[in-house]
Design goal:
The chain has 258 residues and is α/β, with parallel strands linked by helices. The chain has seven helices and twelve strands. It has a five-stranded mixed sheet, with helices on both faces.
Length: 258
């Protein structure tokens, strides 16, 4: 029995579903979510921040001692340099500034993710070194976009959507001169890596290496911090290796190697 007519008929009936499936996959992808987050930040900056006072620099890829680091947005003004990290997430968000990991809860599903304040800390320190400025002249800002709700109290520099613009405008003390802001913008432009395929590929590989290292390094069972491979010096167990908390002696969590 020739089933070709049946197959052709089914294809003509369901062909329109293929583009919908493709579009659905794109919408759910991290790339698309990142694009939406970046669009919202750019739109907020355009309408909520005076372009004569605040200079927006997007997608800055900077060299570091161990590779590269990418910054979503940098906003330069006489009121300081604002380093903006965007998180496109949904659900309930739990966390505090001192925790290494925060929690995302969607119905009964719970996920841990790196504390974005700590994630942005490296960006801030890289810029401090590049620009030769002090901590009072540079600010870390975290912006959550998407359908998320904070279920714990957050510091003022962790905001939703356009709230980051209100935080930036709340800084009214001049900490930089007009000349310094111009010089900073030029330094960032000259210090950042060229937006090339090679640079982007090297950055992706660097991130993958970091993730792989984190996956093979356990977290402390007591405080959740990263653990360090140590070697016992006690006579009874001399030479035996074990995982010890990086916060030792404040935290004495250990994990034996089987």
């Amino acid at each position: 029995m020739d089933i070709s007519p049946i197959i052709n008929q089914m294809f003509h009936v369901f062909w329109y579903l293929i583009p919908l499936i493709v579009i659905g996959g794109i919408i759910k992808s991290p790339w698309f979510k990142g694009m939406i987050g970046e669009f919202m930040i750019n739109l907020s900056a355009k309408f909520l921040l005076d372009k004569n006072k605040y200079h927006l620099i997007k997608n800055v890829l900077l060299p570091t001692e161990d590779g590269t680091t990418q910054i979503d947005h940098i906003i330069v003004s006489v009121y300081g340099v604002f380093v903006v990290e965007t998180k496109n997430m949904k659900g309930w968000i739990f966390g505090n500034p001192n925790q290494p990991y925060w929690t995302q809860k969607i119905y009964k599903h719970t996920t841990k993710f790196q504390n974005p304040l700590r994630q942005n800390y490296k960006h801030v320190k890289t810029l401090e070194s590049l620009l030769n400025i002090g901590g009072e002249q540079i600010h870390s800002v975290i912006v959550f976009v998407g359908d998320s709700t904070f279920k714990t109290e957050m510091p003022e520099n962790v905001t939703y959507g356009g709230g980051y613009a209100r935080y930036i405008k709340s800084k009214k003390e001049r900490v930089l001169t007009e000349f310094q802001t111009t010089e900073i913008i030029e330094k960032i432009d000259s210090g950042k890596l060229q937006s090339s395929f090679k640079a982007s590929r090297e950055h992706v590989n660097h991130v993958k290496t970091i993730i792989k290292k984190k996956e093979t390094t356990p977290s402390c069972p007591k405080c959740g911090s990263t653990m360090i491979l140590r070697e016992s010096k006690k006579e009874k167990n001399a030479g035996r290796k074990f995982w010890g908390c990086s916060k030792f002696p404040r935290c004495k969590g250990i994990q034996n190697i089987i």
